[in-house]
Specification:
alpha/beta, about 475 residues, 5-stranded mixed β-sheet, extended, two-stranded antiparallel ribbon, 9 strands
């Protein structure tokens, strides 16, 4: 090892630069973490499960197809169709209409080629196909007959007039039918098809139905037919003892006192796993202040599952806020993804994630238990893990790294995170709310924004009815027609 002699002045200068070098090194490490995490968010798997392979939607057909597996045969057994031999994903309802197409020889060809005698039918082969018919438009004329009495017309001063009963139109003065409005709602709020695409679809089929007309139908129908049901469901929801809440951004272009670029919010509240008839309600609000959930939940007493947003923590004392371990685990997972692959194994971020995995493993075992059994099982299995995790967290010092952020988030939210141990009806995560709000988030990618607060309110009401119908096993289109 060679010794180099330098002047003391130069040594003092280098020594003075050491703190700056250390700080710059820390900043570089932090920036590299952010770069790796950003790449993972853009190109990596969205799932946080280990060993998960993300489905490429562009190549969905190629990834799902397997030409070596034969298609299932459809056979009618006890009034329903099922596949022979193996379990089938392809199923058809028993009441599906059957269209029979018969293929016969022309009469002049039903002659024996050997002896010229007439042929007879000795058997037949049947091949089944599934025929999908695109949506079509039909004009429905309601003809109401009016009746009068000939005798009274001839002999009396007054003539009684009777009218055949007929349903009121879904929108007075409009040619809209329940089926038309329900179809437009289902296309936009279930399938995520914006109105401008629906307009183009009908234009190609020769039906000139403008976006403005469809918008008017949605606003009127949601106000006249669906909003009273939303109000009734809201009243029922507040009488439940376990709820979930979440919120996501929404852009409203024309809102008084706000620019078009400002954020509004769609709030979601739904029933918990103990509800036999689930309820999912969306609530549009112009901001994300704590006043919004406080107003919506006025009169509610019980448990509320949420993420780590501090606005929920300001709710009145009758509401017990329960934290979400999926969010806590996500912080450690992001810290792990921000590291280089060679540094992940055995890292502190991996240790934190594995503590969370142990808690979720306990929940999987308790999935089919009664609330009372689950509560006791958690005391025996999950509580010791939580104790060890908390002791481990308190001795960690991750600084301003992604790992440090995960540690601070978990410690700050610990009083809420451990509350799922209080009742067997509570859940370890708020995934139930996140799954319910996801259809709105996916739809937002297609229609992007709402034009006015009135439209945002209508969207909240329609999404509420649609998602509640889905949660209860109902077909949204048929349910909207029924309403």
């Amino acid at each position: 090892m060679e010794t180099v002699t330098i002047p003391r002045e130069e040594y003092e200068e280098l020594k003075a630069l050491q703190p700056q070098v250390s700080e710059l090194t820390r900043q570089v490490q932090w920036l590299m973490e952010q770069v790796r995490l950003a790449k993972h968010r853009q190109f990596g798997a969205s799932s946080e499960k280990s060993g998960h392979t993300q489905l490429n939607l562009f190549n969905e057909a190629e990834q799902q197809a397997d030409e070596n597996i034969a298609e299932p045969e459809l056979c009618e057994v006890e009034k329903h169709y099922r596949k022979k031999a193996r379990e089938a994903k392809d199923r058809l309802p028993a009441d599906l209409p059957v269209e029979v197409v018969e293929h016969t020889l022309p009469a002049d060809e039903q002659i024996c080629p050997e002896c010229d005698s007439p042929l007879h039918v000795m058997g037949k082969r049947v091949r089944r196909e599934l025929k999908l018919v695109p949506a079509k438009a039909v004009i429905v004329e309601h003809v109401q007959y009016v009746y009068a009495c000939r005798e009274c017309e001839r002999d009396s001063c007054g003539v009684p007039i009777l009218k055949a009963p007929v349903d009121e139109p879904v929108i007075k003065g409009s040619f809209a039918s329940p089926e038309a409005v329900a179809h437009i709602m289902a296309q936009k709020f279930v399938m995520g098809v914006p109105l401008y695409r629906q307009e183009r679809y009908w234009t190609r089929r020769g039906v000139m139905l403008s976006r403005q007309t469809m918008s008017n139908w949605l606003l009127r129908a949601s106000r006249d037919w669906l909003e009273p049901i939303w109000d009734a469901l809201h009243e029922v929801l507040l009488n439940r003892e376990v709820l979930h809440g979440d919120e996501t951004v929404l852009q409203v272009l024309h809102e008084e006192g706000k620019s078009a670029q400002s954020k509004s919010y769609m709030w979601l509240y739904r029933s918990g796993c103990d509800a036999r008839a689930p309820i999912v309600l969306f609530d549009y609000q112009p901001d994300r202040t704590a006043k919004r959930p406080a107003d919506f939940l006025q009169g509610f007493k019980g448990y509320l599952h949420t993420d780590g947003y501090a606005g929920y923590h300001a709710l009145h004392a009758d509401i017990v806020v329960v934290g979400c371990w999926a969010h806590a685990r996500r912080k450690f997972h992001e810290a792990l993804e921000s590291m280089t692959p060679k540094d992940r194994e055995g890292s502190l971020a991996q240790q934190g994630e594995r503590f969370c995995d142990k808690l979720f493993a306990v929940e999987r075992k308790a999935k089919d238990m009664t609330p009372q059994e689950r509560h006791q099982f958690r005391q025996d299995q999950a509580k010791p893990v939580l104790g060890a995790f908390l002791a481990w967290l308190k001795v960690q010092n991750g600084g301003k790294t992604a790992f440090g952020k995960a540690v601070r988030y978990t410690l700050d939210n610990w009083p809420y995170l451990e509350r799922y141990l209080l009742d067997g009806r509570l859940e370890i995560s708020n995934n139930r709310a996140e799954n319910s709000i996801r259809p709105f988030v996916v739809g937002r990618k297609n229609w992007l924004f709402a034009n006015t607060p009135r439209g945002a309110r209508a969207s909240a009401i329609i999404y509420s009815i649609v998602e509640t119908a889905k949660e209860n096993g109902l077909d949204p289109y048929n349910y909207l027609c029924y309403l």
